[in-house]
Amino acid sequence: MELALDRPVKTFVEVTEVWVPKGDTLVLAEGYYGTLTAFEEASRQTAFAKGEGLPGKAWAEARPVVLKGFDGSYFKRIEAAREAGLTSAVAIPVFAGKELKAVLVVLCGDDENRTGAIEVWAEKDGVLMLDDGYYGAAKHFEWVSQHTQFPRGQGLPGGVWSAETPILMRDLGSGYRFVRAESAGKAGLTTGLGLPVPVPGGKSFVLTLLSALGTPIARRFEIWDARRAGRGEAVLIDGICAREGPLWTGEAEPERKVSAWQGLVGRALGTGVPVVESGVPGLSAGYDTMTALPIHRAGEVSHIVAWYC
Amino acid sequence: MQKLVVIGAGMASGRVLEHLRDTAPDAFEITLFNAEPRGNYNRIMLSPVLSGEKSYEEIVTHDDGWYGAGKVNCRFGEKVISIDRDRKVVVGEKGEVSYDKLIIGTGSSPFIIPLPGHDKPGVVAYRDLEDTNAMIEAAGKPGSRAVVIGGGLLGLEAAAGLRLRGMDVTVLHIMGHLMERQLDEAAGYLLKKDLEKRGIDVLLRASTKEIRGRDRVEDVLLEDGTVLPADIVVMAVGIRPSVQLAKDAGLDCGRAIIVDAQMQTSDPAIYAVGECVEFDGNIFGLVAPLYDQAKVLARSLLGEVDAFAMRELSTKLKVTGCDLFSAGDFAEGEGREDIVFRDPARGVYKRLVIEEDRLVGAVMYGDTGDGNWYFGLIKDGTDVSAMRETLIFGPAYQGGASADPLAAVAALPDDAEICGCNGVCKGDIVSAIEAGAGDLGAIRATTKASASCGTCTGLVEQVLAVTLGDDFQMPAAQPVCGCTDLTHEDVRRLIKAQELKSQPAVWQELGWKTPNGCHVCRPAVNFYLLADWPLDYQDDPQSRFVNERNHANIQKDGTYSVMPRMWGGMTNAQELRAIADAADKYNAVVKVTGGQRIDLLGIKKEDLPAIWSDMNDAGMVSGHAYTKGLRTVKTCVGSDWCRFGTQDSTGLGIILEKRLWGSWTPHKVKLGVSGCPRNCAEATCKDVGIICVDSGYQIGVGGAAGMDVKEVERLHDARTEEETIEWTVAFVQLYREHAKYLDRAYKWIAKVGLDWVRDTLADDAERAALVERFDISQSVYQKDPWAERASPEAARHFKPLADLTLEAAE
Ligand SMILES: Cc1cc2nc3c(=O)[nH]c(=O)nc-3n(C[C@H](O)[C@H](O)[C@H](O)COP(=O)(O)OP(=O)(O)OC[C@H]3O[C@@H](n4cnc5c(N)ncnc54)[C@H](O)[C@@H]3O)c2cc1C
Known about the structure:
The complex is a heterodimer.
Chain A: E1 15-22, E2 25-32, H1 37-44, E3 48-49, H2 53-61, E4 65-68, H3 78-84, E5 86-96, E6 99-109, E7 115-124, E8 127-136, H4 139-146, E9 149-150, H5 155-163, E10 167-169, H6 179-186, E11 189-196, E12 205-212, E13 220-225, E14 233-241, E15 245-246, E16 257-259, H7 263-271, E17 275-278, E18 289-297, E19 300-308
Antiparallel strand pairs in A: 1-2, 1-6, 2-3, 4-5, 5-6, 7-8, 7-12, 8-9, 10-11, 11-12, 13-14, 13-19, 14-15, 14-16, 17-18, 18-19
Helix pairs in contact in A: 4-6
Chain B: E1 2-7, H1 11-23, E2 28-34, H2 46-51, H3 56-59, H4 64-69, E3 73-76, E4 80-84, E5 89-92, E6 95-98, E7 101-104, E8 108-110, E9 123-124, H5 129-139, E10 145-149, H6 153-164, E11 168-172, H7 185-197, E12 201-203, E13 208-212, E14 219-222, E15 227-229, E16 232-235, E17 239-241, H8 244-248, E18 257-258, E19 270-272, E20 277-278, H9 287-301, E21 314-316, E22 324-328, E23 336-343, E24 348-355, E25 358-365, H10 371-380, H11 405-411, E26 417-419, E27 424-425, H12 426-434, H13 440-447, H14 457-468, H15 488-497, H16 503-509, H17 521-532, H18 546-550, E28 553-554, E29 560-562, H19 573-585, E30 589-592, E31 598-603, H20 608-617, E32 630-635, H21 649-660, E33 669-674, E34 688-693, E35 696-701, E36 704-705, E37 709-710, E38 713-718, H22 721-738, H23 745-752, H24 754-762, H25 764-781, H26 785-790, H27 792-797
Parallel strand pairs in B: 1-2, 1-7, 2-3, 7-19, 9-16, 10-11, 10-16, 11-12, 18-20, 32-33, 33-34
Antiparallel strand pairs in B: 4-5, 5-6, 8-17, 13-14, 14-15, 21-22, 22-25, 23-24, 24-25, 26-27, 28-29, 29-31, 30-31, 34-35, 35-38, 36-37
Helix pairs in contact in B: 1-9, 7-16, 11-14, 12-14, 15-17, 21-22, 22-25
Flavin-adenine dinucleotide binds at residues 7-13, 33-36, 43-44, 46-47, 79-80, 105-107, 126-127, 154, 242, 245, 274-275, 285-288, 290, 318 of chain B.
GO molecular function (chain B): 2 iron, 2 sulfur cluster binding; 4 iron, 4 sulfur cluster binding; flavin adenine dinucleotide binding; heme binding; metal ion binding; NADP binding; nitrite reductase activity
Protein name (chain B): Assimilatory nitrite reductase (NAD(P)H) large subunit
Domain FAD/NAD(P)-binding (chain B): 3-277
């Protein structure tokens, strides 16, 4: 297992928030802030109109948005973010058809030592190009990624794009001896989770979370298939965990399932809205926080991806 | 302690060891040989390792710790060379081991087609980690290309993995659809589409001739001359049980090592398990039954009573995002009934096959969540008659689903999606209705609902009915047949708009309710496809009426009539002599027809190729008297001979016939060319009738002289012969592209209006384009069916398949 077994010094993502529409604005439904209580306080008092701030922009433009460096930007909580040492953020809208269910926002701090990548890929002229991404200290990898494009079916972004399904890749740095893979290997990026971000209007976006050994984005990843027509049930189809090893089940083993509303993944399935929880007892494998992001297709939740730190 | 030796650390023998560990850890001292330089791993998960979606470490099932704890003496990387049954020893490459009990679990080896070049470096099979790593290695070179031979489970998993790794991949499959042993044509079509969406090229009916290259593979040559550059060639065409060792040891073997229900071979001290065994005439290729075997074997070794039994199998494909499932038997057959569900917008196809109230087969693509439930019904032989109506919707719908479609639509929430193509919800449609849209056309115009693939048309109409109540009249448009709710016009429009180029594409994308049409829709769809996509679509003779398939008109007494073409009704002494000879030779009755041809009646079916050959030898081709196509061009003698003739009507008739013959049309097409208004060729009751006058040519269309008698209407007055030909060809092509199948020209004109036809053809560019498209089609279809079938070689094959579902008379 290539995942770090020891506790990372600092996680790559410091804050995770779920914003949900209420009337004409987005309000905070839940969030994980760790020790950044002042930023949490500031966030709880904020709401975003459509087009306003980062979550509002993801809603209005119906696309995932990466924002690096808040000073002078449309980011609304600049002061609080600066004090908390947060410098970058990614907002992922969750749409069910035309309806916005929520906006998931992750915020990261700038750090010379933290490596990882949160990328948004967008279709342009029949290939996927990097829309933008946050890479922490992985500067060379960032540069390479900006100059890489993925045809249909190739690589993690191209694979997710054409399969319309989340994919969890192992060993990003080996095997693929292309420039990007080589660079990923050098940056210590090992595991990659890619997922489609469906938006109204049919433009294709793919989000990838690339995790490094020392500063993993997460130490456990799960992909749940929720396409059991009308049965309100999801099956764990892939996953890896630093503590429990591979999570997928073999041919002869029973499936791991959850029903809607059963546990946190079940909550994401039932509500169709992302879930962020921390410090609750009973989180899988004893982790502190978990994020579950539902993906909607044809009006129903088709998959849920979850990650734990 | 007894000594147990195991040959092969495979998926089956691994299971045996686990059972022994669980139930009798101290019963045996175990030695485990494996030719591969490693212990047991989950072989079926090599595909996700290849694609990068699993790591090899994750798929190891038994690691050093496991073997150590059980004190298994591991001899990995050492092949067993022979078994000496007299001395009860196994001879490995590095020495002997004696046994009390022996298990052979040598699995299979991939079959390599002995093509020229099959042994070149760069040709790999797909069986073990070495093969997988060789493929990963090959994918490491930027811009590298792979050719995968074999469109079955393994080949497609290899192709998908290589593609994800960044290669350009082409799959060559010899059959007409992918995974033909596990999927029907419809599911195979969707699978191909899904793979193509990933950038994988799939060539069907592709036969490989040679693998070429100097020191290693450079390209693959197909029988049709296609050359595909390749850095690696993966051969995944099948497996053969590995039984040489057992054969050499004198154990009873058939196709594989013969075992009884206790997994014992013909030697009581020797057992066999896995793909290397044959049980009751069966051999194996999937793991599920091997696991059963392993359990039985372990119990037999321990002296417990158990027996292996065959069971139903199901198939999945491990390509992320390609969701398919198949189980049981889904061949068509008498007494079998299909239930089909299609959702074109989501790419879903489900087919259940029922026989005597039992589910006997299931194939599904795109939505396979209920696969295991159906599999259970098949295995258990459950009586499904009570849930027949809702069976296709899966277990969630059993008991209590509403049968009234209107009630179901009324109950839908406003955000329920009605039109998947354009993302239109019920609420949008209701708003449009409230804003005044009162029929389907208005809904299409305002919301785009049902404007793309059209399969939601019925639903939209139901929303209209629910919303408007009595104010709404369900339209009475006639669907093609019971297989679909779409009209012919819809089908034609959608075949063009969605670029549907095969029958499976039509069935799926237009949501057909049957697996592959019926005797009503298939001839129509076959015609539409060949008329719209002459270069892409392959004509399907099985979708034709019996006369068109036999290339002759079947008569009352079961004999056939044969009618050679006589261009413009002209013939000569030599042709007449040949006809007379044929009449003698085949005992034919001779009739002069109304279309100025000579018909030979009473020909026996088995004589057809021979008489065709004789006619061909005399320079004559088929008169197509049996087709929906150009029949005859009737002419008068014209200005060459007749005192009244104004133009060379015979010459024009011959030119037209030579240009138009062989083309398929919605219904038969008859032409007449008269040299003057006296109209001796009776041109004014033909589909196209041309009257020559002093000033040129009057082109009339839409005549008939059958059940309906109709005089042509004037389409155009042409000045030159050239112009006449251009207009006539363009008219025929317009008819071919737009008319409903089995509408004669006059019926079609009545529907679209002569003005529209005339306006369309009056556009010079449009007319030229129609002529060009006609000529392209003729480049494919203008060939003499007699010549193709008259050779003795072809004649031997000329046994039309009796397909009762298609046996339709005119
Ligand atoms: C890529 C791939 C994907 C597959 N996917 C699926 C799937 O999705 N579902 C499914 O049901 N099945 C699948 N299969 C088939 C499945 O893997 C086989 O049915 C199964 O592995 C057979 O088990 P076995 O123990 O009989 O043979 P194997 O697993 O092949 O093991 C035989 C072992 O014996 C060793 N051996 C052979 N001869 C000797 C000798 N003389 N001395 C020593 N050792 C020897 C071989 O090296 C090998 O390790 C797949 C197979 C492949 C290759």
